[in-house]
User: Fold these one by one.
Assistant:
Number 1:
Amino acid sequence: NWTFLTGGGVTADAANYLNASYVGSEDGTVYKLLQAAGFVKSDCWDYRTYGAIEASPTVSGDRIYVGSRDTKVHCFSDAGEEAYLHWSTPTGKPVVSSPVVSGNSVFAVLTDDRYSVPVNEVICLDSADGKEKWRMDGYDHILFSGRDSVVLVNSAGMLMNCSSNDGRERWSLDTSACDSVQAIGQSMVFVYGEGLVQRIQVRR
């Protein structure tokens, strides 16, 4: 057993991959820890951002993606005893969600919570270089993403399927009457208070 102390609170799960765990802390740092031994200097590292990290890092292939309150999405690789930075893209708003990676796109929820009602939007970046593809105002949750589309939800219960490439709307659905909406693979399950459960397969 082992214990490791970060410089701030840890409010989200670690991202576990092979024998390592990647932990984001409110001190603005992602720590690589070995699951069997904790922090081992020759095999571990820390990657520092300039704002609190409040959501789990995302591991996809050989890359790690993390959002920070420094308003950036960061992409780096685990190079053994150090993190190798590929890109770091400023978004203009704090990134308080875990990035979602699908194909050549990275999606993240941005939240400006300086107001009584937070201002949210979803941003889509190119996974290769971090270049912004598009952003969508008013949506605060990424339900799921497919090969060439992403399904977004807002606080009013409006669900929208849009193109990963340019953000163009394909279709939308009012789910405000649902108690909950969940994604299972490429399907959505809607649960209503009167006992109705409905499943919809996303085909395009």
Number 2:
Amino acid sequence: MCVNWPGHMQGMLAEGLHLRPLNDIAALVVKLRFNCVRLTYSIHMFTRHANLTVQQSFENFDLKNTIAGIAQNNPSILNMTLVQAYGAVVDSLAAHRIMVVSDNHISQPRWCCDNNDGNGFFGDRYFDPQEWLQGISLAAQSLKSKSQVVAMSLRNELRGPNQNVEKWFQYMSQGAKLIHQINPNALVVVSGLSYDTDLSFLKNRSMGFNLDNKLVFEAHLYSFTNNMGDFWMSKPLNTFCASVNQGFEDRAGFLVRGQNPIPLFVSEFGIDQTG
């Protein structure tokens, strides 16, 4: 089972390295009985900031305390480039026999997600398709020698007013084939539409390839998915749970059944913990 470790925010560094040594965090993942980490990154880290050091990245935000924390807990990382630091995190996880799913979470480094953040779909303000292809290519090339990276995820939570099925097929097919060409040993994880909750369009049209059985689809399910949050308290629980299960089956679960089943990776699920 995987745990998510975000590295796609403005600092472009896996979170928590200013608080704990990298080795300690990797050991904690094992202690918590996870054997996999979904490690996120932003496209711009590879395409625009590849030569920026960790220290320079945080200096850009005047985060002196964060820099001091990294210097104390992970001094070897401070002068690495952001891409090197991402690789160092992968190496530490590998040393603890933890598998890694490298996940392109967003293009512009920032919190993810909402419909109008400019990162939702191909052609949005910060989501240039050609830069995206360049970014995932650079990520795949930098990680292809690291055997513990078992999967490359093309994009987290496609969404927003510009999403459409035709462009999904066009660009996700290009991206999947590109990653497979660079690293044929890695699984290629392909997400759906509407915040990765909808792959139902694949009922009527397949991608037309399986990348030598390396193709995996991805789905998310939260208690608040599709505005379900209020219904947990207002509807009969057994019938509502059945409705949620059926909805997931209709939008994504069907992929693992039938004559040509394809693996489905539920990479995010849970409840609203904002209180």
Number 3:
Amino acid sequence: MKNKFWWVLLVVFFFIGVHVYAAPTLQTLTLQYDGQVHVYQSRPITLQIDGKIISTGAMPAIIVDGRTLVPAREVFESLGAAVGWNENTKEITILSKEQFITLQIGNKAAIVGDKTQTMEVEPKLIQNQAEKMTKTMIPFRFVAEILGYEVRWDPQNYVIDAIPPQPVIPEEPKTPVEQKPNQELPTETPRDSEPSNTKQPVDPKEPLKDTIEWNKEEKGVTLPLSEPIERQEHPVVNIHTIQRVTTEQQEDSIFIGADGPISYFESHTWENKLIIDISNGNMKLKNLDQVSQNHPLIQKLAASQYQENPKITRIVFDLKNAQTKYHIGFSKDRKSITVQFFPNEIYHVAMQSIGEEDVLYIKGTWGPELEVSRLSNPDRLVIDLPYTMNPFGGKEEGIKGKYVQSIRTSQFTPNTARLVLDLQGQPDYSIQKQGESGIILCLTSPTYQHMEYSNGKSVQLKLKKDPKNPMPLSQVVHEDHYNAQKYILTLPKDYTSFYGTGIMKINDGILDRIEIKNNDKQQTQFIFNQKRITAYQVTEDEAYIYITLLRPKEVYKQIVVIDAGHGGSDPGAGANGLNEKSLNLDISKRLWKHLEQDPAIKVYMTRMEDTYPTLQQRCDLANELDTDLFISVHNNAAANTKVKGTEVLYFPDGIQYENGLTGKGLAQILYQHLVDQLGTHRRGVIPRDDLYVLKYTKMPAVILEIGFITNAEDAAQLKTESFREQAAQAVYQGILDVFQKYPTGR
């Protein structure tokens, strides 16, 4: 009996041991980032360079939003790159022999050379609370691939291996070698710009031609076979999820999710719109603009409750190209619908110089959309074809064009084909469709003159001075229409006889274009249509005027964003003959006047009229500017009309910013100035973690609740201009107090 007991015990221990040995080891970390504490639990990631394990120090590699983040300095200095950190701008610089990369904490835009590319996850400052250490964590795959490494992921063992680029010994055959059908074509290393030192010179022994033509066999797109959809009867379900899904293979789909089985769907197209009607669907979708933002194929998404009885949810995809190929299908449990998109493939590229024009012709399986960017030093046009495969590989050929000196191709990213035109000068260009599958880019002489745009280390428009019409810079009028993404410089009179008129197309991540035209007073204007809010400095020498574009923090010592709460279709609270949105705007504009007259402070407003910027747009403005303070002006309301007084709300994250200021500290200073000046009932400084503009702004931020419009005493005061002016003055004095106690250091 005793022997039997020991045998049973031995078998139990054997299976327990096998189970423990088979289970993957999990690491649990307590991490603080994005203003919150996260309990991170995952298998440990092993990081290798060409098979050799590298150490990440006290902070291991982690996965955030499906992408691996690693400590910047520990990892990329081991790859031979120099890593720098700018505390003021929160920027990381990575310098290798071939590339110069700039990343910024909380910003998905990466600058590589002089071109901007969007990452899937932004760099973060992450504190490992067990080690009491904060590290700069950046996306490994993105940076490594820019540096030329091939990144391989082993999901079974959680191993990432970066394979360094192999040196290539160039060969120059005497005669062109025809590419065999089964021979793999070389591709360019993905990068954000085309620096001049990477450009391969065209063989001078080969005579230049005025026509280039490249062809590949047209394959077309094979769509999955669509099975008939069975109509079923199910209870009403909530259509609650819509999100973009991109795999490591860069396959692009839109996932539509419900909380139960869907009875049926049908789809149809109208012009460039794909329309999906979902039976038994109750529309609960939100943030559709975030799904379509930066999508290569979708211009806009919209959804509505198309029908109430029976319930039908309608989703409309506004496609950038009506020829886009896709397949729509159910999941097995019918709880989701997937719209899968299929990439385009170009099979014909031709370049020809015709008289005073150079013409580029591209043909694909469906008409490609072009994203054209102008780069300088040397002058180039970079032509990206989103969601397009390039079968030509890294091909380059010189041409005897009017403007184009050579053309080259690459597969810039797994789903973006790229063509680069190396130019002489800065010609204008136009784009037009040819049929359903072709597109033409025509380069011509611009209608503007005596100006040159550069976007290398500095971004600048250089204007040659008109020798016959001197222009005093003191008479140039600056207008900053930042909410419309425009900056206007108005010259004192008509200079179009010297500068001409027209549109300089740029699209470089900073500017979309520059318009040169006269206003109705016949004064010449330079209208800068911006991709991001920018500050402008105008200087001169004897021969030229220089218009330099800078980030606002490079120009202004102190920046404040004032947000007038509610607005437009959102009136806010209303009582005692008062409308909250109007009160908020009135006090905000009074505050704006005080700040605008202070030369030490640059102020931006989320709205100046009765409009409604979304909560996300208000946060985006503040975050894009990286403003020093965000102040949202509101007034309060309560069911109990006896409730009255002033309160200031802040987000209780406890983060101390670089100058020592916290959200609570900002709230306390402004609150004290308000109640001392207004004499209102003191309701205090209140932490709130559920308010959007406090939660999603990345700087000290507060909401000022000046008074209760539902209370007769507060309402009577709010109706007077003197009280509203006092409120504005109190906040202005509070802002001065904040900057005196917590200087920005710029």
Number 4:
Amino acid sequence: MTYQTHIRQMLQLPNVLAQCTGMLGWLLSVAINPFLTDGVAIWGWLALGGMVLSCLAMSTARRFVLWRLFALVFVVFEALAFRFQIAGMGEAGYAWMIPIAIIITLGSTILFAQVLDYGIAAGAVWLVLFYGQFDSVSPQTLPLLVAIMVSGMVLGLLLSATFVRIVGSTLQLKESYRLQAETDALTGISNRRALMLDLERVCAEPSPDWYFVMLDIDDFKRINDRFGHDVGDLVLRETAATLSRHFPDGYFGRLGGEEFGVLVKSEGDRELTLRLQGLLDDIRANTQAGSCFSFSAGVTRLAPGSLPSDLFKQADGELYHAKRAGKDRVHYRGAMICG
């Protein structure tokens, strides 16, 4: 899972709740504001409409950059909505500018997945609320106002940086646990669970170019008994490494014991046969384990409506025929294609 996917999944609901809170907060403040004798100008309601639209756009955005952009747009519209409300409050409105700016900037921390985005949004909020208002600030209170603005910005940036770091750490832990759950500890390749997930994904969008290969190391028990389990483990690791070299464009994993599975896309039976023959030759020539070894394999081709259980059964049947026919070979559709 990428950081972008993780952050969107993690923040989807909190973002919507935060945005709805901002919109409802504005409506409630309009309803109970005793200083709005003439109500809010039409521009305030248009800004509320912009908040609604940017919230919807953010929720449905497919591209991560747009998702980030609409978060910024929402905060700007929120600041505009409160600016127009404050404008209708007369002299009493100035006292509310700083509290509102702090509430918006700190409350919007959760909307941003990057500290830079938050910094831009926070700066935009202060600019929208205070643009053109500094002339009414006395020289004596101006330093205090600047100090409050800087303190609010620094606090918001610290919160944003902490939040982003926590989200990133969560992703790292999540990926670490996923890898542990889907990786075979001995060989370092996918385990049965991970390969089954890959197979389910491919079966959901079937293509006639996909093949499933089930292979089994020949006489593996004899290797363990004769040379020891250390050599047997080395044979398994060498098989996994060879699969990695021959099928970098496919999915492969250890199904358990001495069985491996390969899910590979090929332009036809002939191309697959050549690749499997190369794999078989490479395994035969491998001397890293200190003992020559080979494998037998069964192949099946994916068809529309194929289920992982059906593919396992078909490939296992072909593997059985390869073993019965003498091992050290690959069977497909009831006949040997490599040997």
